Model the fold of this input.
Amino acid sequence: MTSENSEQEPVTFVDKRKIDPDTGEVREVAGEAQPLSGSEVAGDVQDGAAPEVEEPAAEAAAPETGELAERTADLQRLQAEYANYRRRVQRDKQSDIAGAKASVVSELLGVLDDLDRARAHGDLDSGPLKGVADKLTGTLTSLGLSEFGAEGDPFDPELHEAVQHEGEGNDPVLGTVMRKGYRFGDRVLRHAMVAVTDRAEGATPADTDPASAAESDQQ
Done:
């Protein structure tokens, strides 16, 4: 008996306990599959399919694209508003400049009236005063001043101030011009003071148009 027991292999014990009795920690057994997390188990259980792989980069790009389009639209709107503002400022600036010039020229209309009276009396036919009058008239004309209200022109109540009426008024034209009218660009600085009469029989507007008369004289 003793010899038989001695020949038997020694008895070994394998501790398969998952918890170490000495430390109380969970042992890792070689070859044992690690437990799945709760999210992985839930994905595997649902419909028996593997969990889908999310694409966070694609989802994050969509909000950035929308924000970029919104900022681009804001920038374009600001550029349009600024362009409109610049045009409005430029238009107002030009209007202010024209108004200032018209105001200065209006103060010189009395001087032009005096020169017209001197010219009518023959005082500007020669001499230094003629040169001054010509320079002043040329400068104002270059700035945009023009006169109107010549004898024989068609009567226009928006341009002419009639202080006397003669005839039946069927075809009114200007008779005596007591004071010339002046226009600065598109602005009427002063209405012409005139006497209104009927157009002579047989006369046509071309016969009494100063521009047509000047052309005929040149020919």
User: Anything to note?
Assistant: The first strand starts at residue 145 and ends at 148. The two ends are 163 Å apart (CA to CA). Strands lie at 145-148, 160-165, 172-179, 181-184, 187-190, 192-198.
